[in-house]
Amino acid sequence: AFTVSLWFKLADPCTNDYVTLFTNGNGPAAATGVILGVMWQGMTFGELASGTTFQTLYPTSPYRRCMDTWSHVVLSFAEGKAALYDDGQLSHEAEARFSRVLHGGYPITLGGSPMTPTRQLTGGIDEVRVYDSALSADQVWSLHLEESCRAGAP
User: Fold this and answer.
1) Is this structure's pTM higher than 0.90?
2) What is the DSSP string of the chain?
């Protein structure tokens, strides 16, 4: 079980299909690790891998980002369930096709990935937290409210 929480802002629109905000070693040779990113449309996504299978969480409705505006994103996983939150609100929840996520061959990286150097973030990341448990929706909302002033968010 784990939760990744961070604030980010985009300085430029994504020029590739996505940019990486956080990865815990996603890489070869098997499908391993976690990616938390922003697609070119400005929507966040989470990708989890078990060693043999990938599963991607996309928001059920697009959540656009404005340039130079802080946004809070959270990815949580436990007991075969994964959840993605945008600014404290649940944006997608799914049953995982596996019960654990394997760490990949690279170190934890913020704002990019050693596997995909063209998918680097142009902008900022702040208030990064990694938990060894899955936060509940209420805990995510409380965290969002607690950090919103420090990250310069409205």
Assistant:
1) no
2) -EEEEEEEEESS--SSSEEEEEESS-BTTTEEEEEEEEETTS-EEEEEEEES-EEEE--SS-----TT--EEEEEEEETTEEEEEETTEEEEEEE-SSS-----SS--EESS-TT-GGG--SEEEEEEEEESSPPPHHHHHHHHHHHHTTTT--
